[in-house]
Amino acid sequence: MSSARTITIQHLGRVEGHGGIFVKVVGDTVHEVNMDIHEGSRYYEALLVGKHFLDVQGIITRVCAICSANHTVAALTALEKALGISESERVHRLRGLLLLGAAVESHALHVFALALPDYLGFDSVMAMAADYPEEVTFALRLKQLGNRVQELVGGRPVHPINTLVGGFGKLPSHRALEALRAELEKALDPLMRFVDLAAGIEVPRWAAQPTLYMALRPITEGYRFRGESICTSRGEEFPAETYRDVVREFTVEHSHAKHAALASGDTYMVGALARLKLWSERLEGRAREAFERLFPEGVVDNILLNNWAQLVEIVHSLERGMELCDELLAMPEAEREMAEYEVRAGRGVGAVEVPRGTLFHEYEIDGEGLVVSANVITPTAQNLANAERDLRCAVENLLVEKPGGDEVELRLSLEMVARAYDPCISCSVHVVREDP
Amino acid sequence: MTGTDRPKVGIFGLTGCAGDQLQILNCEDEFLRLAEAVEIVDWVMAKSDNDSNCRLDIAFVEGVVATERDLETLKTVRARSTVLVAIGTCAVWGGLPAMRNDISREVLEREVFGEDLDFLDTVEARPATQFVPFELRLPGCPIERNEFLQTVRSLLAGTVPELPAAPVCWECKTRENLCRVIYHQEVCCGAMTRAGCGARCPSHGVACSGCRGPVEEPNYDANITMFADRGISWKEISARMRSFSAPVWMTHGLEREVDHE
Questions:
Q1: How confident is the model over A325-378, as pLDDT tens digits?
Q2: Is the ipTM reported for this complex over the cut 0.85?
Q3: How many other β-carbons are positioned within 10 Å of the β-carbon of residue A201?
Q4: Mutate to test the interface with A, among B204, B208, B211, B237 (most CBs of A within 10 A)
Q5: Is B178 an 8 Å CB contact of chain A?
Q6: Which residues 105-124 on chain B approach chain A with CB closer than 8 angstroms?
Q7: Residues 11..50 of B with a Cβ closer than 8 Å to A: which?
Q8: Residue of A50, A221, B178, B228 with fewest CB within 10 Å of its CB?
């Protein structure tokens, strides 16, 4: 007796963009597990062809709002490589600060407003506010703090405008940096109380299975979001410029976003959990404390722990943000900083660790400064194949653990797996390009 | 927290970057009070238990129509709603996704995905406002938080929000910025673009790219001639202006000038 059963989640809630989950089970065997991506297309890379390089950032940042600062830094890094511009000390630090602000905002939104309601039994952060008013208020304040960093450095919290090829339109004043530093510091203690709250929540293990992880090797000795080479958890290392050979993309019929795997055919995970897996020994201060509290046995395979990995990165981002403020305050105050450069033909790759994982941008420009080709590979597109693998694992385990189990519970479990990846569907759709 | 007499609100995203919905979440100081003043019954981005059939007193829609599914969603939301508000330049004017509607989707699909992809359900990206009537339109890429909050407050009070009708130049002058056109010979769209952003870009030393869409009755010809008189090529003028409001702006003969050049 083998009856076919399908589980369809039409519209996955509490994620950015439009996607769903489709599962087909025949008897005890899981036949199909798809993450359906039905977000519409915008063809950003094709739209960039023929545009001047100075207009690239303002366009490509609009791929996605939550990730706009990250796309900005990746694009500027790639364009400056193409043009042979090297970042000044100040520009490097300001962009670093921008990335940290984006991480605080994005992780705070995801951990507290999108993921945590599942673990505390609510349908949304609005519903959670009734029972956890202080926590929700603090979470919103934290998210706002991330936005404040982005506003100070990028000119506004969504789609930065102050970030230019070669530098910044307007530099933050020392007074503003001092005020920001104080706010970052003030958020640390209450955040550590959240770490305690999280450490007390039991995380289910039905989606846990051996996983391959990928992250950039940090450019300096610390825990950093920028790097020049791609590392995997099985010890491989490749220069970032060769990302097209490392990340193999393919199309699948149920998704408007491409999927990705390594040349070996293995799927892999990128994101906060992958970064901790590879570089947690570089964490310092309270971030190390948070890590030890939430990962007492080190990073173990279980995608649901990505939520707590993001929490550790919020702590790190606040601390590192304070350090960057100090370093910027040690420099003389100035109005504007812009590198001198000449327009030339070239090609450049920019790789950045962003909240959801490794982001690649590549541009080729001609002698007049017009874009010849553009390529973007987002973390969510890289994670989709691995997410389907984890969803399959969850269904298989749950069918064994709770045969004939409640459909509602099963659906919620699948949503928790998908949400743990913090998928950014706007980003993932149609921003990958087939190279001729 | 029951109060069934609170206005029922839905927030929807068609194809887009979700930036306008994010700006609503970015109203952190007001967010909880907002969630108490209205009943948010349908918002996939922020809730998992959504009522997708009930009547809505106010609905906000972000994004362009780029798939058949988008169009279905939009029509359903219109049918359910008393007041429908377009949020963001994509919904109001088409925004960046509509920038190259002169290129066929088949060509773009091949460019991005390669050959043989007939599973894609995509149509030309068009603003939501082209398909159904809207009671209110909030432009911006993304929307300004204060304009969103002002709109909600006005609707709750039973009035219509008063949004700025002047161009960005007006706000730019009050901030005493040096003009990007006159002093920097740049294509700055401030004179043709709707104010409300506080002239954020020129205040950071960056030319306005027109992300809030056109003001009423913009004088395109005079502006474009002004750029050309400063020695900027038609090609550059066209490339800069073919962005956020391309479908509206490009009907003004600028492309023909480029061909003549």
A1: 999 999 999 999 999 999 999 999 999 999 999 999 999 999 999 999 999 999
A2: yes
A3: 12
A4: B204
A5: no
A6: 105, 107-109, 111-114, 117, 119-122
A7: 13-23, 25-26, 28-29, 31-32, 35, 40, 43-50
A8: A221
Q: Where are the domains of chain B?
A: 8-156, 168-260
Q: Nearest Cβ partner of B200 from A49, A55, A161?
A: A161
- pLDDT, position B2: 45
Q: What is the set of domains in chain A, with CATH numbers?
A: 4-37 (no CATH), 44-428 (1.10.645.10)
- Residue A143 contacts residue A105 (beta carbons within 8 Å): yes
pLDDT over threshold 70, residue B253: no
A2-44 confidence digits (pLDDT tens): 578 888 888 888 887 778 888 888 877 888 888 877 666 667 8
For A430, the closest of B64, B112, B142 (CB atoms) is B112
CATH topology of domain B8-156: Rossmann fold (3.40.50)
Helix (H, G, I), strand (E, B) or coil at A7: strand
DSSP string computed for B121-156: -----EEGGGTS--SEEE--SS--HHHHHHHHHHHH
| Tokens of residue A177, six digits | 């940096």
On whether any CB of chain B is under 8 Å from the CB of A39, the answer is yes
Is the per-residue pLDDT at A431 higher than 80?
no
Where is average pLDDT lowest: A12-16, A97-101, A280-284, B214-218?
A12-16
Compute the residue count for chain B.
Answer: 261
Q: Cis link prior to B218 (omega < 30° from 0)?
A: no
